[in-house]
Amino acid sequence: MAHQWSDQDGRSYPLTVPAGMNDGTGGTVRAYLLNRAKPHLPPWLGWAGTGLAGTLGHWQWGESAAAGVGLTLASVALTGATWWAGKSTSNQRRLHAAITTAAGTAWVTAACLAGPTAGPIDDLFLMGGPAVALSWNVRMVMRHNPDGSTASSDGGLLEKVGLARAQIGAAKVEPNRVTAPIALQPGEQTNDDVTKALMKIASALDLPTSAVRYTPDPDSVRRGELVIVPEDMLSEEVQWEGPSNLGGSIAEPLVIGRYDDGSALVMWLPGDPDVGRNSTHGLIAGQSGSGKGDAALNLLTEVLSRRDVIVWFSDPKAFQDFAPLRPGLDWAAEGGSQTEVLVAAVEAVIPARTRWLGAHGYRQWVPAAAEQQNDPEHSCRPDSRACGCEGMPFLVAWFEEAANTLRNLGDDAFTGIAQEARSAGVSLIVSLQRPSYDQMSTSTRASLPSVIALGCDARDEGFALPETVIDAGAHPGAWGNRRPGYCYVVSPGIDEARYSSPGRTRRFTTRAVPVMEQLAAWVQHNGATADPVTVGAAAAVAGRAYTGRTTEETGAGSRPVALHAVQEEDDMEHGGLLVDPEDADIDPEAELPETEDGDDSPIFGQEAGRKPSPEEARRLFAQALAEFEDAGQMVVGPKDFTDWCDRHGLSRSWVSLRLKEAAQDGRLDATNTTGRWRIVPALTAA
Ligand SMILES: Nc1ncnc2c1ncn2[C@@H]1O[C@H](COP(=O)(O)OP(=O)(O)OP(=O)(O)O)[C@@H](O)[C@H]1O
Questions:
Q1: Which of 317, 424, 489, 634 is an S-S bond match for 354, by CB 3.0 to 4.6 Å?
Q2: Is 639 annotated as a binding residue?
Q3: Which H or E run includes 73?
Q4: Residue having the nearest C-alpha atom to atom 15 of ligand 1
Q5: What is the CA(294)–ligand 1 centre distance, in A?
Q6: Where is the region Disordered (predicted)?
């Protein structure tokens, strides 16, 4: 009978029938049973042979004392030889064989000398012999069915890689993917042994390292699944052509590429209470040239294409890669001080959003929270009638090249924000230029449960991916920057067995630019805008620095967009300038911020040339703060007053004291960075 199996795409594959078994007609059933029984016959033949040897021996040596000594010595020697010969096998098998030999040879010796039917000798033969033969049969059955499946031992591949005696179960064969359950030798081998042997398996099969993976069974330390993907189906690059689900919800899967078997590479940012999934924060990690920029574009275009999300985005590289999408961002912060304000705003909106969600009966953000609140179940009114409040879109706060931002923020602050953001419908996305612990501390890394791990230095694999995923065969270090777009994705919602499967993002070429521009235009007309709670909390700390997404009509489309990287913190460090860490984010060449209406007059300095009186100096200082606020620069430190000090003949230490005083007066608020103060917008200042 032809057995066929079809996959999801309708392709058919022949299934092989076990040897010796065919259509099941009468004649062949006997042949089949004989075939199945054959391996179990040798112990019984051994039993019969032992009986024959005892009978013939008695006939030959029945009366000889010397033969008795010889037979006893031969029996001991044979048992010893069995023990010695069994040293390469398992202890259990060695002992079993030695006991069998000892029992058999002792019986033959006794039968030869006293006669096979003397005293209990025949009873011993009739009872002990079958028991010993059966014990070998049982052993064989156990070996062939470790899982009660049709498993069979593999004497070839596994032996070659040092896993002899491990059992491979029935393999599932799919196009370009073989999945085989493995059961290891109880008490002797663990899943770690398979993990360590993966490279050797790849070598034995002449495949790349990433083609062989192992998924340990979470319930057993000696069972798991070996997955072999022989052909690299990712080698062909695929270009991005547009978002997967324009107008869908951010709660639906975000498609960022494909896996090596062609299935969609997806992830989720918000949680889903129905399946017990928490919202997540993500890291995009990869070395330069690994395709990190395009991976970020894959994710960002997916996020922006959803109807119920807003994005706050900080990019020290002046939106070099992201310029076409900028009009679709609710807040775009370029560089150090703008990012400081954005971070302060994220900190501020979290409790406000959590309160709002709680008041409307949401334990975490769900798509319904983004709609107008017409459901009495989700009402903030004490009488439980529908409140009709405006909905709250999900918020993605994205930090490109975030090493400096995170360092300035400090571990505790970041960990705290990440922890609380989960219940506020806020996801943090962080990208790192060099994925390593000198860029980000262990605790900050631990606050980002999801990762898109692109090619990296082999030494940084442990930073990019959890140990279990590396053990299962994931090796982004093997790609470096030679396989742009190749990545592993670890994120809640993805089947854990997939974590060690490589995927590849889509490539963004110049052809993608007009599509991204169209997407940004779509966001401007159809995308979510920030809700009053988020706007209120953000504006209370960021003042005019937070405008919310402006529409084309008000000029966002014509907002000047830098197409070249500006010199930023990283560049300054790498450029070898010796910069005081406190001043690292100050560009000594930079002009002071322009005023709102764009005129070129200096922001301060009308009264240059003479030292002001103390009262006048304080007034000028207050005016300077107001001008900073007007210009949207909400985080300041003494360095920002350098030119101002020069103009007014005042020292930076004088400014430092005034800054502290202003903080006591409620006009400034301390930030996580020593010597940097956040301006409290005038309307909300104490
Ligand atoms: N999925 C992909 N398929 C094919 N090529 C890709 C893919 N992703 C990125 N590339 C290409 O790989 C090259 C390196 O990408 P890119 O410069 O974006 O890397 P990067 O990690 O962002 O580097 P850097 O951090 O230096 O900006 C580019 O030529 C890019 O077009």
A1: 424
A2: no
A3: helix 65-85
A4: 291
A5: 6
A6: 576-615
Q: Give, using CA atoms, the residue closest to atom 30 of ligand 1.
A: 291
Tell me the range of 138-142, 259-263, 328-332, 334-338 where mean pLDDT is highest. 328-332
564: in domain: yes
Same-domain pairing of 84 and 211: no
Question: How far away, in angstroms, is 507 Cα from ligand 1 center?
Answer: 8
Q: What angle do CA 335, 582, 675 make, to 5 degrees?
A: 100
Rounded CA gap, 412 and 675, in Å?
18
User: Distance between CA 281 and CA 431 in Å, rounded?
Assistant: 11
Is the beta carbon of 647 within 6 A of some atom in ligand 1?
no
Q: pLDDT tens digits for 276-299?
A: 888 899 999 999 999 999 999 999
Name the domain boundary from 211, 228, 245: 228
Statement to judge: residues 441 and 573 lie in one domain: no
pLDDT per residue as tens digits for the range 232-268: 778 888 999 999 999 999 999 999 999 988 889 999 9
Q: Which of 491, 519, 487, 518 has its CA nearest to residue 503?
A: 487
Is residue 188 located within the same domain as residue 304? no
| Mutate-to-test residue for ligand 1 from 283, 507, 571, highest number of ligand atoms within 8 A of CB | 507
248 domain-assigned = no
Residue 685 in domain: no
Instruction: Look up tokens 């490589």; give the residue.
Output: 502
Instruction: Tell me the whole-structure pTM to 2 decimals.
Output: 0.63
Rounded Cα distance between 614 and 608, Å, is 15
Q: Is 505 in the pocket of ligand 1 (CB under 6 A)?
A: yes
The structural domain count of the chain equals 5
- Does the C-beta of 506 come closer than 6 Å to ligand 1? yes
Cβ(292) – ligand 1 distance below 6 Å: yes
For residue 433, the CA-to-ligand 1 centroid distance in Å is: 13
Q: 271: annotated binding-site residue?
A: no
Q: Give yes or no for residue 289 CB within 6 A of ligand 1.
A: yes
Nearest of 75, 160, 144 to residue 111 by alpha carbon:
75
Domain membership of residue 640 (yes or no) is yes
Parent domain of 584: 556-679
With 0-12 / 13-18 / 19 or more C-beta atoms within 10 angstroms meaning exposed / middle / buried, residue 166 is buried
Q: Are residues 329 and 387 in the same domain?
A: yes
Neighbours of 626 (CB within 10 A): 13
CATH assignment of the domain containing 609: 1.10.10
Regarding whether 222 and 259 lie in a shared domain, the answer is: no
Sign of CA dihedral 574, 580, 582, 583: negative
For residues 486 and 616, state if they share a domain.
Answer: no
Same domain for 564 and 629?
Answer: yes
Dihedral angle sign, alpha carbons of residues 229, 231, 235, 239: negative
For residue 365, give every residue at least 6 positions away whose Cβ sits within 8 Å of its Cβ, in sequence order, or none.
270, 271, 279, 357, 392, 394, 424, 425
* Residue 282 labeled ligand binder: no
30, 50: one domain: no
**At 470, which CATH number?**
3.40.50.300
Is 291 assigned to a binding site? yes
Distance 14 CA to ligand 1 centre (A): 41
Please, is 585 exposed, middle or buried when counting C-beta atoms within 10 Å of its C-beta (0-12, 13-18, 19+)? Answer: buried
CB of residue 235 inside a 6 A radius of ligand 1: no
